[in-house]
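Quick review question:
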């Protein structure tokens, strides 16, 4: 029975945290940077070009204005970010895992804020003193600035985690199960070249 003798292929989570971790991280980072760029363009439109806030819609919001006002889209992105951070967590070890977990915790809160906005956008519920959908911290910080802040405080620990992940200590390298950096026990032909610590 050749089929029974074959090894079962690893599941999706095992694959993206093992053999395909670097590829998954690169794709995930591309999505994060694209979203981050949208927020930066919107900030540029407001603070440098002097556009009124309702007209500053980022890059995609210019041809598709409904994107900026769609709470489903904003919540969808927040949940995709959260799921990505959660699914990619097992591939991290040591210091990089600690930083990735910080990003995950902060994104969890960001997701709660977007969930609150989504509920308000599709119901008559409003936070006390608010006439329109408002998140908790938006009661004290305007929405554009708040979301720049949220995206920054999630992005910074993510980048630190990725940096540390690609430059692991000897112990972290030995504990790693992914293909991002070479392991001491991996065949030399599969081991990527890593700069010295």
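Suggested answer, residue by residue:
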């Amino acid at each position: 029975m050749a089929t029974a003798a074959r090894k079962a292929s690893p599941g999706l989570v095992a694959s993206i945290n093992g053999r395909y971790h670097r590829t998954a991280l690169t794709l995930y980072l591309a999505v994060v940077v694209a979203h981050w760029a949208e927020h930066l363009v919107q900030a540029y439109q407001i603070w440098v070009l002097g556009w009124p806030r309702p007209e500053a819609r980022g890059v995609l919001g210019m041809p598709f204005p409904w994107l900026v006002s769609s709470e489903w889209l904003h919540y969808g992105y927040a949940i995709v970010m959260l799921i990505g951070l959660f699914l990619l967590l097992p591939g991290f070890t040591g210091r990089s895992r600690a930083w990735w977990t910080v990003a995950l915790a902060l994104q969890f809160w960001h997701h709660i804020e977007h969930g609150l906005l989504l509920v308000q956008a599709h119901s008559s519920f409003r936070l006390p003193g608010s006439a329109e959908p408002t998140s908790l911290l938006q009661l004290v910080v305007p929405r554009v600035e708040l979301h720049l802040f949220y995206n920054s405080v999630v992005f910074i620990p993510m980048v630190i985690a990725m940096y540390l992940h690609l430059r692991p200590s000897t112990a972290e390298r030995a504990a790693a199960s992914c293909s991002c950096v070479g392991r001491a026990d991996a065949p030399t032909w599969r081991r990527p070249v890593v700069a010295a610590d």
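Why it works: The CA atoms of residues 119 and 125 lie 8 Å apart. The chain has one domain: 14-172.
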